[in-house]
Amino acid sequence: MPVLPTRVDPKSETFRANYAAMLEQVRYLQEQLALARAGGGQKYVERHRQRGKLLPRERIELLLDPDAPFLELSPLAAWGTEYTVGAGVVTGLGVVKGVECVIVANDPTVKGGAINPYGLEKSLRALEISAKNRLPLIHLTESAGADLPVQSKIFVPGGKTFREITRRSAERVPTICLVFGSSTAGGAYVPGMSDYVVMVKGQAKVFLGGPPLVKMATNEDADEESLGGAEMHSRVSGVSDYLAENEFDAIRIAREIVGHLNWRKLGQARMRPVEEPRYDPDELLGIPSADLRKPFEVREVIARIVDGSYFEEFKANYGTTLVTGWAHLHGYPLGIVANNGILFSDSSQKAAQFIQLCNKIDVPILFLQNITGYMVGVQYEQGGIIKDGAKMINAVANSTVPMFTVMIGSSYGAGNYGMCGRAYDPRFLFTWPNHRIAVMGPEQLAGVMSIVRRQAAERAGQVFDEEQDRMIRQMVVQQIEQESNAFYATARLWDDGIIDPRETRTVLGIVISAAFNNVVKGTDSFGVFRM
């Protein structure tokens, strides 16, 4: 494959301005991630430690293989809401005994690990990742159950947790549950439905109803140990398969369980030797425009994330606002679809053909999104932009090879759909801190609404209030700016996390490798392509 050239000048004023703007956003990202790692705050962290217990990320670190990375997912869930940043649960991908696993760990420093609506959605996303990529699931459980004041938002969707655990078991994808503390009410079904259960002596408490509820329901007096303690479940009920002496012992047992799974990846690929990109990934901070309304060359991004900066471009001279082609990333073959401007009919047709080709040869696809949408106007409507855009969306919707999306700029309108946004089921979706997502840009949206108001006033024969319109437009712009930024989006789990642009290659390497735990096979079946 040819090597992508670069025209980046790190000494230029434009590069330095872009770099400074992105670096400021990355620093803010790190500050918010630190808040998530702080859990429920120093008071509750200290109380937890005084009980002789490990924090959730400490448990995860001990569980993982030495020096193995942990890719935390949705770390800023619930950011900017009434709930603690991180939503009281830690989820992510890690390697245990050489096996890539999904890990879900309750954070007992946040309301005793009680499940809130964002924490539930985050956990369900982890279960979805386990299902689609065929990854064993490890639950590190210590939860007071549902956050009762918001039970109406949790109870009905929460049942999917247990359904998914049992479905994975039927598919020979095991769930291993380590119980470090309370696992109450519906939470008792997590160990109850897992393939393997480890309980910590003197700490684990698993029961459908605790002593107060038992007293109210049956007038029976019961202590926690006889009702649901680790020793009782290990010696009497059989809910526990392994009785651990302490938390360290529980983690040791879990590693041994993973070690005997006889786990094998089902995905096959013609791998190539891994080669670092030829250009400095630090330059990814200075490539994206500080003002997202200004375009930037996406090949410069590709050149800093793919092996050896090699890229075999497909249809390079056709539909030039979209870049398509083949590369390798950490040795895995990869098709790339990347925005280099607005989507026209020719670029949409090019995308549809390229996605079909990737499916024909069983190669995953990476989408690099920086898109304002599909082109509008009389010329383009008459030229068939709707049916051509539909071809692209048809191809994305029906593609069965693993797809990965990184939003490196704006993501507006139907361009979000055509470039494999969240609704189109990419295996993983990450964003850069500069990311913006909405039906359209703030100024455009406010302008459209202004035109509609003006036309309505004219039809009614009323005088149009220019000053009021100016104020409304300003308020709309502020609202959309707030609701379209990367942190607002990630708080609501519209993605799997905001990442430092310099870590893009590493993050993609982890998730592509994880996807190959499942069969990687394309499809020949697409919907009707309107001609």
Explain this structure.
The protein is an alpha/beta fold and 531 residues long. Helices cover 40% and strands 17% of the residues. The protein contains 19 helices and 15 strands. The strands form two sheets. Strands 1, 2, 3, 4, 5, 6, 7 and 8 form an eight-stranded mixed β-sheet that branches. Strand 3 (99-106), helix 4 and strand 4 form a beta-alpha-beta unit. Helix 16 runs antiparallel to helix 17.
Q: What is the helix fraction of residues, given as a range? A: 40-55%
| Number of helices in the DSSP assignment | 19
Q: What is the CA-based Rg, rounded?
A: 25 Å
Oligomer: single chain
Contiguous runs where pLDDT drops below 50 for at least 5 residues:
none
| Largest β sheet strand count, sense and barrel closure | 8 strands, mixed
Mean pLDDT: 93
Number of strands: 15
Strand content: 15-25%
Outline: globular
Cα end-to-end separation? 33 Å
Helix-strand category = alpha/beta
Summarize the helices and strands and which ones pair or pack.
Blueprint: H1 13-37, H2 42-50, H3 56-63, E1 70-73, E2 89-96, E3 99-106, H4 117-133, E4 137-143, H5 155-170, E5 175-184, H6 189-193, E6 196-200, E7 205-207, H7 211-218, H8 224-228, H9 230-237, E8 242-244, H10 247-259, H11 298-302, E9 312-314, E10 322-329, E11 332-339, H12 345-360, E12 365-371, H13 378-382, H14 385-398, E13 403-412, H15 415-418, E14 428-431, E15 436-438, H16 442-459, H17 466-484, H18 486-491, H19 504-515
Parallel strand pairs: 3-4, 4-5, 5-6, 5-7, 6-8, 11-12, 12-13, 13-14, 13-15
Antiparallel strand pairs: 1-2, 2-3, 9-10, 10-11
